[in-house]
Specification:
By secondary structure, this protein is α+β, with helices and mostly antiparallel strands. The protein has helices at about 15-30, 60-65, 80-90, 95-105, 105-115, 130-140, 165-170, 225-245, 280-285, 290-300, 325-330, and strands spanning about 10-15, 30-35, 50, 70-75, 120-125, 140-145, 155-160, 175-180, 185-195, 200-205, 205-210, 215-220, 250-255, 265-270, 310-315, 335, 350-355. It is built from eleven helices and 17 strands. It is globular and about 60 Å long. Bound molecules: adenosine monophosphate (AMP).
Length: about 350
């Protein structure tokens, strides 16, 4: 394969803030971004080309595929049929297997277990009988999650006793689900890493994530865990990426169980894309996750992931973004705004990264 040259067009499915930052990375690398999405969004403001069409519009998809040297996506709920159609017309990275595995929590758990990666205990739930049996086997409390389309805590409900089972199923609208045993974690961490077409692998330092109402609020890098556990987190991410013959940036969210020498890792989920917990790399690392993803899918050399200090990345959720003027006035605050017009509660409007010298907390 001859590879992609500067000046080529990169296709991005999805028009949100991740697409926006990917499109800006394309521009930095001398590439043109073509965004394809069914509705306008933050990515449309910064791309060279845009297609506003549904994901099943085959004529629009074909024209898009023809215009792009490689197609990628900014969210994992791209319909499989769309990805397959595009893959039949050109190159799509990350590949269809990575997309399929990360679209379905059951497939994801089975895949992880098949490669020897620890997950929360789980049971498949296709109705009341499955849920009852699952609760007996896993015990309560447990979490019922829809297999598909869940994000930021949407599509999941905690069950504290068998008596809550019927209400939980109703809350899931009886969609195919999985029941997960509750993991008593001490921290939530994620590995953001890239794998190139040649199998090269570059992981950023492990970061630690705090959520508010299930939405990421704060990421700190590095995570405060033992070097041994941090190394094993990276090894897990690499095993996943290698097993999928993955190309691009991948994020693997994990729970840390126990403390100090007793720390172990349980994978919660993976995202076949750039990830909110990797936003700190924009300015906080030698190569941002966005530039790294574009390099990887183009078959270009991966950049250094070296961290440039101790990092704190705060999301600006909903009305928090209204403080933008004060934030801009703060020395050392690297403010990114996504250009969204309505600051609905919990909506990701932007983020702020702060870099401190290594010694400071
Ligand atoms: P998810 O949508 O799977 O990323 O879950 C959102 C958040 O819910 C996670 O970041 C955890 O804080 C919590 N959570 C999800 N699954 C579990 C679990 N099995 N045990 C404990 N907490 C969980």
């Amino acid at each position: 394969m001859s590879g992609v040259e500067p000046g080529a067009t990169i296709g991005i499915l999805g028009g949100g803030q991740l697409g926006r930052m990917l499109a800006m990375a394309c521009a930095d690398l001398g590439l043109r971004a073509h965004v394809y999405a069914p509705e306008t969004g933050p990515a449309f403001d910064v791309c060279a080309e845009a297609t506003l069409a549904s994901y099943d519009d085959e004529a629009a998809l074909e024209a898009f595929a023809r215009a792009c040297a490689v197609v990628t996506y900014e969210f994992e709920n791209v319909p499989a049929a769309t990805a397959d159609f595009l893959a039949a017309h050109g190159r799509v990275d990350p590949n269809g297997r990575a997309l399929a595995v990360s679209q379905d929590r059951l497939a994801e758990k089975r895949f992880l277990q098949s490669i020897g990666v620890a997950t929360a205990p789980f049971a498949m739930v296709d109705g009341a009988a499955d849920l009852k049996a699952g609760l007996v086997r896993l015990g309560a409390p447990a979490i019922l999650k829809t297999r598909r389309f869940g994000y930021d805590g949407k599509g999941q409900v905690r069950i504290d006793a068998q008596s809550q089972a019927a209400a939980a199923l109703a809350a899931m609208a009886n969609q195919p689900s999985i029941l997960e045993g509750l993991v008593a974690f001490t921290r939530e961490v994620s590995v953001v890493a890239a794998r190139g077409r040649d199998g090269a692998f570059v992981a950023y330092d492990l970061c630690e994530n705090e959520h508010v109402d299930h939405v990421l609020s704060l990421t700190r890098a590095p995570a405060c865990i033992t070097p041994k556990a941090a190394a094993s987190a990276t090894t897990i991410a690499r095993r996943i990426a290698d097993a999928l013959d993955y190309v691009g940036v991948i994020a693997v969210e994990m729970f840390v169980v126990g403390e100090g020498a007793h720390e172990t890792l349980v994978v919660n989920e993976m995202a076949p894309r750039v990830h909110n917990s990797g936003h700190w790399t924009l300015g906080g690392a030698d190569t941002s996750q966005f530039a790294q993803h574009i390099r990887a899918i183009c078959g270009w050399p991966l950049g250094s992931g070296r961290r440039r200090g101790r990092i704190e990345m705060r999301n600006l959720l909903g009305a928090q973004a209204l403080t933008w003027r004060a934030l801009l006035a703060q020395p050392g605050a690297d403010v990114h705004l996504y250009g969204k017009h309505q600051a609905r509660p919990g909506r990701k409007m932007g983020h702020v990264t702060r870099i401190f010298p290594e010694a400071e907390q």
